[in-house]
Amino acid sequence: MAPMTPIATETLRAWQVQGHEFVLIDTLPAKSFAKGHLPGAINIVSDDILARAPALLPDKHIPIVVYCASTTCKRAGRSAERLERLGYTRVYHYVGGKRDWEAAGYPLTPISDETA
Q1: 90: closest CA among 46, 60, 50?
Q2: How far is 103 from 95, CA to CA, in rounded Å?
Q3: Strands 91-94 and 42-43
Q4: Are the C-beta atoms of residues 10 and 42 closer than 8 Å to each other?
Q5: 36 three-state secondary structure
Q6: Which residues of 29-39 are buried (b: 16+ CB within 10 A; e: fewer)?
Q7: What are the phi and psi torsion angles at 64 (to 5°)?
Q8: What dihedral angle (degrees, nearest 10) is formed by the CA atoms of 101, 64, 39, 113?
Q9: pLDDT tens-digit profile of 43-92?
Q10: Interacting residues of 81 by C-beta distance below 8 A, sequence separation 6+
Q11: CB-CB contact of 66 with 74 (8 Å)
Q12: CA-to-CA distance for 55 and 10, rounded, in angstroms?
């Protein structure tokens, strides 16, 4: 099995700005997701990915980007491996996660902003 493809902050931001079709998954616990996540992300906790991904992501060929808190966080890497085991063919790992996103000057979105 080929390793998941890393994706850089600039590439991920360009995908968002250009309206590239992909699914962005925050693999952190719900509490962390609620405090702030990358714009457009959905929350599937890494431990739940095997159970929830098939129902939430029926298209196995859509690009999927997974991330967590930072380069030291292992949740996104585990999630990417699990998605590939499930047969997803275009899995990207945003290794820097929320820390690199914020360091690049991009905002996080808290849940309260989405529902307001």
Answers
A1: 60
A2: 13
A3: unpaired
A4: no
A5: coil
A6: eeebbeebbbe
A7: -125, 130
A8: -130
A9: 999 999 999 999 999 999 999 999 999 999 999 999 999 999 999 999 99
A10: 4
A11: no
A12: 30
